[in-house]
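Q: Here's a chain of 203 amino acids. Please give me its 3D structure as tokens.
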Amino acid sequence: MRFIHPESRIEEDTVIYPFVYIDKKVTIGRGCKIYPYAVILEGTELGRNVIIGPGSIIGFMGFGFEKREGLYKRISHKGKVVIEDDVEIGGNVTIDRATKEETRIGKGTKIDSQVHIGHNVRIGKNCIIIAQTGIGGSAKLGNGVILAGQVGIKDHTIIGDNSIVYAKSAVLKSIPEDSRFSGIPARPHLKTLRAMAKLLRGI
């Protein structure tokens, strides 16, 4: 059993497995594969040859609140998610809908399982994002960026083209292109290695 809203458009050669939910005004290009228990919500746009892994949720409201009269009130999310051609998304990935415009995943990007991508995030082409990474709202990744496992990216941060962030790093400031960063907080990888060497010599 699966649900496909009649206002959505799905092109030929796309495979939709059982227990998938596709909301209204979703567009899905040719040659896609949507695995069981995936949820694709209103206004999401998938290009060609996109793979959505089991249990992934695309287009749910972002985590945005403002405090009014002592209570947190949800900010409206009326944007969408756009996933370009040849993107692969693993299982149990969550990609939030934008507040006004779009959350975008660039062509050829590959996303491992258990990754969270916040609202308004822009990810460039041919990026690699490995398991348990979290990307805060409105962050921007250039083309060819690699984020290793359990990396955290602060909201509104910019990661330059062809940069690598090593595993378990916390990126709190923007990173220039062609960089290698690691650590908490993330700093140039060689600086992190030197700091660790000094620390270990004192043990």
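Q: Can you summarize the key feature?
A: The mean pLDDT is 95.
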